[in-house]
Amino acid sequence: MCNLYSNTTASEAMRQLFMVDASRDHLGNAQPRPGIHPKGTAPVVALNDDGNCELVEMSWGFRTPKVSKRTGKPIKPAAWNNARDDKLMKSGLWKASFLARRCLVPATSFNETKGQRPATDYWFALAGEGEDRPPFAIAGLWRRENEDLLEPEHPRRVHTMVTTEANDLVRPIHAKGRMPVILRPYDYETWLTGSHDEALALIKPFLAAEMRIVLQGVGVKSDGGAEGDA
């Protein structure tokens, strides 16, 4: 399960990577996001009504109502920020979005923790040449959320990221052996527009040899690009 990721890529670089025309970049003066948490906002690449890619702000996590076990009264809704690959066609929470509203979640690293009291944070990134944190895309889903489940400042659209079995680099860190689905650039269009069978075929662990741990330490809840131990 991924509960924290970063995206420090500049808007112009995201437009180039995801082939988004400047007229369809709705991020405004987007700032680097060294630590994106559930219910936080983040850039997402999705198709508009005309079938063109656009960059938009979404809030991380599909919301569902929640009530207090003690009082039975509504409390803050749950945010489902990960969609398991084996539940995409079975769960009512994910199926409609998987079939019709797939998206790309731009990222530069993601966080997993190991141990307890204290837990150690590990930040994973791609092992690119010449770039400290090469940008990449995580397979995602989105939907328009019920306003009653959102804070007033949150955008109506929410996103989640698809997870699969962890590779050999992530597995020793993640207790349940899961990791986000990282897509290769030549698969972006298929994820966004392909059939559900074509999209399912893209869901697999990213090669461990093409990734690295770039930052680790206790309480390291953001990744602004500096490498090493905290």
UniProtKB/TrEMBL annotation:
Q: Which UniProt keywords apply?
A: Covalent protein-DNA linkage, DNA damage, DNA-binding, Hydrolase, Lyase, Plasmid, Protease
As recorded in UniProt, coiled-coil segments are none
Whether Calcium counts among this entry's keywords is no
The record's EC number reads: 3.4.-.-
The organism's place on the tree of life at top rank: Bacteria
The family database entries (InterPro entries) matched by this protein are listed as: SRAP, SRAP-like
**Protein family per UniProt:** Belongs to the SOS response-associated peptidase family.
* Protein name as it appears in the record: Abasic site processing protein
